[in-house]
Amino acid sequence: xxxxxxxxxxxxxxxxxxxxxxxxxxxxxxxxxxxxxxxxxxxxxxxxxxxxxxxxxxxxxxxxxxxxxxxxxxxxxxxxxxxxxxxxxxxxxxxxxxxxxxxxxxxxxxxxxxxxxxxxxxxxxxxxxxxxxxxxxxxxxxxxxxxxxxxxxxxxxxxxxxxxxxxxxxxxxxxxxxxxxxxxxxxxxxxxxxxxxxxxxxxxxxxxxxxxxxxxxxxxxxxxxxxxxxxxxxxxxxxxxxxxxxxxxxxxxxxxxxxxxxxxxxxxxxxxxxxxxxxxxxxxxxxxxxxxxxxxxxxxxxxxxxxxxxxxxxxxxxxxxxxxxxxxxxxxxxxxxxxxxxxxxxxxxxxxxxxxxxxxxxxxxxxxxxxxxxxxxxxxxxxxxxxxxxxxxxxxxxxxxxxxxxxxxxxxxxxxxxxxxx
Amino acid sequence: xxxxxxxxxxxxxxxxxxxxxxxxxxxxxxxxxxxxxxxxxxxxxxxxxxxxxxxxxxxxxxxxxxxxxxxxxxxxxxxxxxxxxxxxxxxxxxxxxxxxxxxxxxxxxxxxxxxxxxxxxxxxxxxxxxxxxxxxxxxxxxxxxxxxxxxxxxxxxxxxxxxxxxxxxxxxxxxxxxxxxxxxxxxxxxxxxxxxxxxxxxxxxxxxxxxxxxxxxxxxxxxxxxxxxxxxxxxxxxxxxxxxxxxxxxxxxxxxxxxxxxxxxxxxxxxxxxxxxxxxxxxxxxxxxxxxxxxxxxxxxxxxxxxxxxxxxxxxxxxxxxxxxxxxxxxxxxxxxxxxxxxxxxxxxxxxxxxxxxxxxxxxxxxxxxxxxxxxxxxxxxxxxxxxxxxxxxxxxxxxxxxxxxxxxxxxxxxxxxxxxxxxxxxxxxxxxxxxxxxxxxxxxxxxxxxxxxxxxxxxxxxxxxxxxxxxxxxxxxxxxxxxxxxxxx
Lengths: 422, 490
Fold this sequence. Notes:
The structure holds two protein chains of two kinds. Chain A folds into three domains: 1-111, no CATH class; 115-267, Rossmann fold; 272-289 and 324-422, Rossmann fold. Helices cover 44% and strands 9% of the residues of chain A. Chain A is built from 18 helices and eleven strands. In chain A, the strands form three sheets. Chain A has a five-stranded parallel sheet, with helices on both faces. In chain A, strands 9-6-10-11 form a four-stranded parallel sheet, with helices on both faces. In chain A, β10 (385-388), α17 (391-404) and β11 form a beta-alpha-beta unit. Chain A starts with 6 loop residues before the first helix and ends with a helix. By secondary structure, chain B is of the alpha+beta class. In chain B, the strands form six sheets. Chain B has a five-stranded antiparallel sheet with strand order 5-6-10-8-9. Chain B has a four-stranded mixed sheet with strand order 1-2-4-3, covered by helices on one side. Chain B has a four-stranded antiparallel sheet with strand order 15-16-14-17, sandwiched between helices. In chain B, α6 (244-256) runs antiparallel to α9 (307-323) and α7 (268-275) packs across α8 (279-292). The interface between A and B is large, with 60 and 73 residues.
């Protein structure tokens, strides 16, 4: 069905511009009231979710008008989902789904972005969404972790491409493994055998490549025999938990982000954050751990004929309320000495870090522009540090902070938590 | 349709290449219209330069703020004002705020609340330009229409820069009528897409005393926002009455006593829309509330400046309602529901639920005037909706209209609309027929006159030939006819 299945949704767009802003009741001033990086940066209505819906509807009616501008619109979107949350406060219509399907259609029609083509080529050749440096499991050298493909474990720690290969971020894998070790959980890793989850490929519009990766990843998980996967990568978390479920590939696998798992371990008494970490922080909700992590809702049905846009059976929209928002805050609040001050845009209406949807590859300038907006917002809280729970967010923010000369330190949440535990 | 290279270049020289586009790919997102180009000026000087070029090239233009609705003809230059989004000044002493066209009401309102002020919010919602002329939930205590406009910076259709009122004489924004040139009769509209030709590039708006918190304590995640507590000295209630006459009597008395911060003549369908997070829930809630009400009603917010003031207002309000035979809708007295309505109806953030969510489109007949007269007309217009409801062409809202008093009630707004599926041609045609018939009936039966495009003379004759005068004024203002908005002095 592709884009066609969202015809009614796209026609529902009333051009109210809610998709450009955080939910109206949450607007607390003139600053930090926008939520969509794309319209904020590029200004033409076409770059907003509403504009994208209008373009999608026209493409269905008359065939797409492929121009350089259209592709610029299509690929300059982080697919962060904030537009959908703001729209769905008041409207019953799918927003992110048709925008995603339009990208899929572009790729199917051969209207791709050359840089993203190279990223996908690397995925096909080297099974990685990021440049490959050394072996995937090198980060674990000397840690003596269990190989989940050979040894019996209860939990698989899925690391992800970026954390595995990026020398700056490998520490996050080591810290996460260390936390899991300290908790006494019987876990293992897949090391060199770990495939890319393919989540970002889907966001880029390469649906078949995503499905190939999903198949490989689920084969590996089945091979390990675990029924719980823990990851410190928000993107991979969302891919395995939500996207795999969307395509009915996940089965009953339990997927946890480390930020969800840690509070459980603390509650069970396995971890005790007792050492003070004296730091004033603010927390950035990664899109893939927040609004995009809302569980997939399987639904099949038809519009009820008549005046209302209602369905049989009734359709449940994913409006952003089911993301992982409280657990990371619980972690921060559990660390002695850490004080948390919230930014104006948080949780389901958080501003994106800028790196999603392939934008960090296809348009690094736009990714950085978006991240710098967030750095300024974080600075406005008076915090000393910006904490997130996603390696891509951390990487993007570090670059943005350096580029702007910001005094803010940037941490992943596991970095602070590890300092606090005995 | 497309601009020549030379013409395009001339506009590009004004705003830079990043802020003009004539690519066909973007046009579906601009009201599905093939504009000559879309241009995004950053300031008044750029607007002026653009309009002068339009005159030079005899190119029609249409300025637009948030662009929620509008009917546009192809081939014109679309001036998208979204880069003009600054709050220029909030003057607490003289109680006004100066804004550019793309400051949305939610932004200005939030800044004002921090300072102990608020403003008139148009019924369309806080997602619209703060400059927008119109009416809304808070009209009872904050007036409406052009009454809230003070001095205005206006680029005329000929490209001249005009400063109205005190801005024209003293460089101050505090008054729209003088000392200095009062153009109130011409600047009757607000901002695009309005009816005054040219572009309002800045406007001073009246602001009002706000007795509430610096921000509402909104908790929860979207769409389940609620207030953690009802702010002190605030109360929201929905009252229903056995008859229209009794409701109207109570509305009048509440206005006379100057009790209400907000008196919104919501029907229960609109209340249901506000408190429901989906279409299915809304339909069920409407059915439930319809059984609970006595008949027509209205929603009231009272806000006390002190505990004693609040106690007095509350007591007087209930006394008036009781005397008129009305009663409070008990199921809405639940503090959670009360909080939702209180916040949503001050930070007007659910209008989209009331209008577009059910079917995707609505068609409305809004009128200003004597409430008793317009209510009588609206009852007939409501009855005329019944066949459409029965046929399943429009959403069942009980055939109700809504409305409210402005400035404590000596004039008022009445509105009635049909919500429907715009993809259903039969429904669309039926709604248009209803609209035409009810508009014509209003004029024939001497209720009021709507501006009906294509028929200005019929109505103009009854209104001092306003259309002749307006055309003469417009010709002077717009000698090259590049600003095609027809005027409305009605």
